[in-house]
Amino acid sequence: MAVKDFETDNEKGSPRGGEPAPKNEKGRTGKDAAQGSAQAGSQKSAEAGSPEASAAGAAAELSEELSAELDELDELAKALAEVGELRDRHLRLKAEWDNYRRRTEAERADERSRATQRLVEKLLPLVDDLERAVEHSSEASKDPLREGITQVLSKMQDILASEGVKIIDPKGQPFDANLHSAISKVEDNKVPDETVLEVYQKGYEMGSRVLRPACVVVSCRP
To answer: Where are the domains of the chain?
Structure first.
């Protein structure tokens, strides 16, 4: 019975037989594999935690931040360029508007001036008539008609003066073809040549424009 049992144990595989060796070898191989995996993980963890890996990660992160900041700077530069263009456009429009406003105001002022000049030109014959009426009326101090005409003439002259109208009455002054119109010449040695001797009709000017030149008699040498 003892011999049979021993043989049975050999058949089943005992520590003394040859077949249990693979089981022991397989067990050692699995353990070694587990140990190898652990060592590989440890090596990777070591490599990941190494200064070189940390520096590479920091460089990559810094590169991304710089790229983002550069993009923001580009957007800011574009926005500033647009603001500059809008500012230049605003200044141009403002200058054009100022020029238009000044031109319009000048045109309106010129139109008002021309309208006033036309009105004054129509009133000048009336002023001439009033002056002649005063000259040919009685010089008596109590003549009510003369006093009334004189008052009306004075008011007319005040109104014309308020509009910038000036009387051209050049008696005794040198002749000026721009302001005077000579209707005749008289020889006279007592005054310089081309001196205004008489004014037949007063002239009027408004600003830089002569509304009507004065009609005068001019002296000349014999």
So the answer is: 167-222
Q: What is the DSSP letter of 206?
A: E
Q: What is the pLDDT of residues 110-143, one digit of tens each?
A: 888 888 899 999 999 999 999 888 888 766 556 7
Q: How far is CA 219 from CA 97, 193, 200, in A?
A: 56, 6, 14
Global model pTM greater than 0.85? no
Annotate 55-66 with three-state secondary structure: HHHHHHHHHHHH
In three-state secondary structure terms, 197 is strand
135-144, 161-170, 204-213, range with the lowest pLDDT: 135-144
Q: Does the pLDDT at position 36 exceed 80?
A: no
CATH code for 167-222?
Answer: 2.30.22.10
List, in order, residues 6 or more apart from 137 with CB less than 8 Å away.
143, 145, 146, 149
